[in-house]
Write a structure and sequence with these properties.
Length: 215
């Protein structure tokens, strides 16, 4: 009689894929999902705060340069977009460039931190206490808050700032920031530094100088 094949010999064994690389790949996607979830939650909160989706004028302009008009902060882009890009510079630098003695998070988690801070500011900025503060102490006398689409663009601008800071490094990023500050100061007599100063510690002489070219 011929050899009877062993049942075990007829079983074809295949190696199971290693779950570790797949799990690692999924973990790399988690922070991106967290960032998207934060943005989505922010949009929902702004909507529940009765923020308009776009300008109440009914027109959808991609850009407005008049910071004294009712269109500022209501459309896609305005001069303050440069301030929000600068937010990204600062948030990235806060986590990566400052000499703290702790383990630096991965870039994806740095982005999560930046998105979280920026979204928190967008919510706070559109609260009555900050809107009234802007109207009382800065040149934004007619400010009524941002539209939802403008807030979304502001968040994207902050993300862009984080990407620029990572790509350019400290000194080039500092040069870009100074260019933004000087450029908008000459252009509209306002910038991130003055905006923060006037919000926290208003100076009447600066407000008068800024208002001299309004209208």
């Amino acid at each position: 009689m011929g050899n009877v094949p062993n049942a075990e010999d007829s079983i074809v064994t295949t190696a199971k894929p290693d779950p570790v690389p797949e799990l690692a790949a999924r973990r790399q996607l988690w922070p991106h999902g967290v960032s998207l979830a934060i943005v989505a939650l922010t949009v929902l909160i702004l909507h529940l705060m009765d923020r308009v989706w776009w300008c109440q004028c009914g027109k959808m302009f991609p850009w407005t340069s008049d910071i004294w008009s009712e269109h500022c902060s209501q459309h896609l882009l305005d001069p303050y977009v440069f301030s929000h890009i600068s937010h990204g510079f600062f948030f990235y630098g806060l986590v990566v460039w400052l000499p703290f003695k702790y383990k630096r998070p991965s870039f994806a988690w740095v982005m999560v931190i930046a998105v979280l801070i920026e979204c928190a500011w967008e919510i706070l900025e559109n609260s009555p206490i900050i809107i009234n503060r802007y109207r009382a102490t800065t040149i934004a006398i007619g400010y009524t808050g941002d539209s939802v689409i403008n807030s979304i663009i502001d968040i994207i601008a902050c993300i862009t700032g984080v990407l620029i800071a990572r790509a350019c490094g400290f000194w080039k990023t500092l040069a870009i920031f100074l260019a933004f500050e000087i450029g908008t100061l000459i252009w509209v007599r306002d910038n991130l530094s003055l905006n923060v100063l006037m919000l926290v510690w208003p100076i009447e002489a600066i407000k008068h100088w800024q208002s001299a070219i309004s209208g």
